[in-house]
Design goal:
Helix content is 71%, strand content 0%. It has helices spanning 7-21, 29-36, 40-46, 50-73, 80-102, 109-117, 122-148, 157-178, 182-188, 195-199. The longest helix has 27 residues, at 122-148.
Length: 207
């Protein structure tokens, strides 16, 4: 029996790499096929359109983020508010690695596509919104645990989770604009207390 083809996996990886480093509009099906060393006919065997490939790539990238970052950062072995700080820390480490390896910081996979395509493609917009909702849930769970443990006063945990996620994405965007991942490290030191949570009516409980 012949070797099982890994063409689909190569196409997905190439789509993730090229769209991340360029943009969705800046990458053609031909570019992806050449990068993946896959014939165009094989591309259309797996995916009808570039959008279908992008949607599958988003799902794969979410799975990777979930396993390598979110599950690690938000492990319940850590205190609730420390989990949020760990999320920022792991994001910094990833962006630092990207910058060191290629000289350029590219930002957030999902945030980049949200900015580029949210007003142009409803299917991709919805997929990104779903991913952001899943990320926000991790943050919300940490905040709920912090309230339950007496680390925070009663708050709107869902709204505050989205505020923190918004702050996170803003930091990534600013750092990308300056090609400087160190900005993530500096600004994330106040990610939980006092700035963003204070502005979100989320305050640590006074002892």
């Amino acid at each position: 029996m012949g070797r099982t083809s890994d063409a689909k996996e190569r196409l997905l990886k190439s789509a993730i790499d090229l769209i991340y480093s360029r943009s969705y509009a800046g990458v053609s099906v031909q570019d992806i096929c050449e990068h993946a060393d896959v014939k165009k006919g094989s591309f259309h065997y797996f995916f009808k359109t570039k959008r279908d490939l992008a949607l599958a790539a988003l799902e794969q990238q979410w799975d990777l983020l979930n396993k390598t970052v979110l599950e690690r950062a938000f492990s319940q072995t850590y205190p609730p508010l420390e989990r949020i700080q760990r999320y920022f820390k792991l994001a910094y480490q990833y962006q630092r690695l990207v910058k060191d390896s290629g000289g350029q910081m590219y930002g957030c996979h999902f945030g980049n596509l949200a900015i580029e395509l949210s007003t142009q493609d409803g299917a991709i917009r919805e997929k990104i919104a779903q991913i952001f909702e899943k990320i926000a849930y991790y943050i919300e769970k940490a905040l709920r645990d912090a309230v339950a443990m007496g680390e925070l006063d009663e708050i709107d945990t869902k709204l505050s989770a989205y505020a923190i996620l918004g702050y996170f994405e803003g930091i990534i965007l600013l750092a990308k604009s300056q090609n400087n991942p160190e900005l993530i490290k500096r600004l994330s030191q106040s990610a939980v207390m006092p700035s963003v949570l204070k502005n979100s009516r989320l305050r640590p409980k006074k002892r």
